[in-house]
Amino acid sequence: MTEHADDHPTVPLTDRAVTRMLTLGLSRPARPIDGLIERLSAPDAAGWLDVALRLSPAASDGDPVDRLVHGQASRADLEVYKRSAQASNAPPISDEAMRGMFAYFTIVAAGLAHHGILLTSRPREQVDEFLLDLAAVLPEPWHSFLCRATEAPA
Amino acid sequence: MGSPRSSEQHDVFPPTLNTWIDRKIDEGETGRPDLNHYVMSVYADPLKVYFRGCSMRWLGEPDDIIAGFFANRLARPNFFNDWKSAGNRLRRWLMNALLFYLREVSRERRRHGHVEDVVDEIGEWTDGPEAAVDRAWAFALVRNAWERASNDCRDAGQTAHWEIFVRHHHDGEAYRDIAPDFGVDASQAAVMVRTVTKKFKQALRDCIAMDGVAPGEIDDEIRMLLEITGS
Q: Whose CB has fewer CB within 10 Å in chain A, the N or C terminal residue?
């Protein structure tokens, strides 16, 4: 292998920046959602997603695409779905827990996109970050839906 | 601190760093330029920190002392074989080697009558140097991984990926603020950052493994460094 002269200027590093960059080196996902993103990046993600949608709390009232992406679910419906998605006691890295997390964030996205409400105590900035990372590994219509949710006022 | 990247041509280590360093050691004199270059790039700053906290700092300027140390010790054929045999972390091994080197320099100065600035017993530390050295090493690690990942991105035609990564993870900017500058949407920016993050993560973990950290202990090492840098 051959090295090249570094064309990229070395950025002065602060303690805070070094801390952030070191965190990227941890093997375990730094955020719970990273486990979900890894799952949705796996070769069999399409099948997993089908199951996750079928078992989503929103599926109890119809097609999750209609209920969440197309905005058929009311704010009250979303609150019920969210509580259901949070109800699991499954181990954090289990499929069940990740399905719950997937449902949770799609419900939160629906709250933002269709009702202008933030259905979580997490900071909006963090929610947007999660939704965009999640969108990156999801097919349509979920990809555009999650992106749209991050642009909605709340 | 010094960079492992230079206009000179150096073989870079592949993802499995222990393999790389073992191969370089096995190559003998052939492998030494790359090995020495890497060690000087990553460990010069931590060793300067160690020297500055040492009672023998009267011996000279940190840059000169560390350059002299590298020139002296890295020229020894068995230096890295001895390290592997000892089983220490490389940075601790270098700290010990530097201490011995400083004693040698001090004795040499005494022989020539240059002892007027000696204020402490040789080999005593004004305070525990390990945390300060580890902090400097954390910075060196990040810089090394930074340079490797940025060069990998450039070689792969992913300059925009790298720039978005820096603005997001280093500068703390949101994807939606960065994306328009690169003609992508926020989610595409997230995907690009994820690609670079994998490169950076691997580079960082490789560099830690290079220090002699077992694969199963790398996360613990990172957590230790995070405590030091203020996580």
A: N
Cα–Cα distance for residue pair A68/A62, rounded to 1 Å? 10
What is the token pair recorded at B76? 């020894």
Find out whether A33 and A105 touch, Cβ atoms under 8 Å. Answer: yes
Question: Number of H helices and number of E strands within chain A?
Answer: 8, 0
d(CA A51, CA A53): 5
- Using one digit for the tens of pLDDT, what is the confidence trace for B83-116? 988 888 999 999 999 999 999 998 888 887 766 5
| Among A residues 72-101, those touching chain B with beta carbons less than 8 Å apart | none
Compare CB distances from B162 to A8, A135, A136 and report the shortest one's residue. A8
Summarised one tens digit per residue, pLDDT across range B136-176 is 999 999 999 999 999 999 999 999 999 999 999 888 888 88
- Is B230 close to A125, i.e. CB distance below 8 A? no
User: A65 and A141 in contact (C-beta within 8 Å)?
Assistant: yes
Looking up tokens 């600035």 gives: B117
**What pLDDT is attached to residue A34?**
84
pTM reported for the whole predicted model: 0.71
**ipTM of this predicted structure:** 0.83
- A135 touches B at CB < 8 Å: yes
Cα–Cα dist A53/A72, whole Å: 16
Residue B174 is which amino acid?
Answer: A
